[in-house]
Amino acid sequence: MEELNQQQKIRLNKALSERESTLREEIRREVIAQDDYVQLASEVPDPGDQSFANLSVDLGNAAVTRDINELRAVELARKRMQSGTYGECAACGYPIPFERLQAMPTAERCAPCQENYERTHHEGHRGATM
Ligand SMILES: [Zn+2]
């Protein structure tokens, strides 16, 4: 398996940042749509605030929870991109195929390791990203 080349990294980085903007916008809309928006408003920082993903996931809204979990995954992926570990499987250390990353830019494991992980962690009460 080959490691990602620079062009592939640039493409994936772009996909990640686009996904991040979409998610932030979605979360904002979903949170605003909730009845208890007033109560939540003080907890929602401005777009671009790095702590946005730290917003409590216990909002009782499945869509928001899912989006926040994905936003966390995106931010983790971008951190890996910065530190140069992006595209390495977190479990076996081998490069994750570009096709897999293209389909799922937040992937942190290769397909076999992810399957194995999901088998051993069931639903994963810490969310899908860890
Ligand atoms: Zn692996």
List keywords for this structure.
mainly alpha, binds zinc ion, 55% helix, 130 residues
In short:
The protein has 130 residues and is mainly α. 55% of the residues lie in helices and 0% in strands. The protein contains five helices and no strands.
Q: Could you explain the architecture of this structure?
A:
By secondary structure, the protein is mostly helical. The protein has a single domain (6-121), classed as Four Helix Bundle (Hemerythrin (Met), subunit A), CATH 1.20.120. Helix content is 55%, strand content 0%. It contains five helices and no strands. The protein has helices at 6-33, 37-41, 62-83, 98-103, 111-121. Helix 1 runs antiparallel to helix 3. The two termini are 24 Å apart. The structure holds zinc ion. Residues 89, 91-92, 94, 109-110, 113 line the site of zinc ion. Zinc ion (ZN) is lined by residues 89, 91-92, 94, 109-110, 113.
